[in-house]
Amino acid sequence: MSNYYTETPTTETHLFNQEHRIPVYGGFWERFAAAIIDGIVMGVINKVIQLAIGEIEGAVAGILVNCLYFALMESSERGATLGKMALGLRVTDMNGGRITFMQGLGRYFGKILSSIILFIGYLMMVWDDRKQTLHDKMAGTLVVKADRFQDQL
């Protein structure tokens, strides 16, 4: 198994490989606060959609809008939703690079699985060294504090 801190970057500059930096991972409460912000943002957007096109159609459209919001924002250059940006967090691949749209989709659908099993998928970050949730592990992603690194021991 390769060490994701020291792998050679390919075509993209990976944040963690510069001077063998170790990221500062996003903690439980920071990620929880970011999720609340995103929930409020998406709640308002989904309500507007429901008022515009109807309750049932709006609910269906809301699922699609939520999926696209998370997948597109997290796979964007900033690597973060509005909530994560507000808390100084970003989603990266295991090398600190930008995630793909498919990884963003994987994270989104993985969050559903993390929720279904009594939120244990979210609580996994409490005992994980890299603070990965189930959906992070499924998608091969990390949530880190943007531009913050700890000294390598």
TrEMBL record:
<feature type="domain" description="RDD">
    <location>
        <begin position="25"/>
        <end position="140"/>
    </location>
</feature>
<feature type="transmembrane region" description="Helical">
    <location>
        <begin position="108"/>
        <end position="127"/>
    </location>
</feature>
<keyword id="KW-0812">Transmembrane</keyword>
<dbReference type="InterPro" id="IPR010432">
    <property type="entry name" value="RDD"/>
</dbReference>
<dbReference type="Pfam" id="PF06271">
    <property type="entry name" value="RDD"/>
</dbReference>
<dbReference type="InterPro" id="IPR051791">
    <property type="entry name" value="Pra-immunoreactive"/>
</dbReference>
<keyword id="KW-0472">Membrane</keyword>
<keyword id="KW-1003">Cell membrane</keyword>
<keyword id="KW-1133">Transmembrane helix</keyword>
<dbReference type="GO" id="GO:0005886">
    <property type="term" value="C:plasma membrane"/>
</dbReference>
<protein>
    <submittedName>
        <fullName>RDD family protein</fullName>
    </submittedName>
</protein>
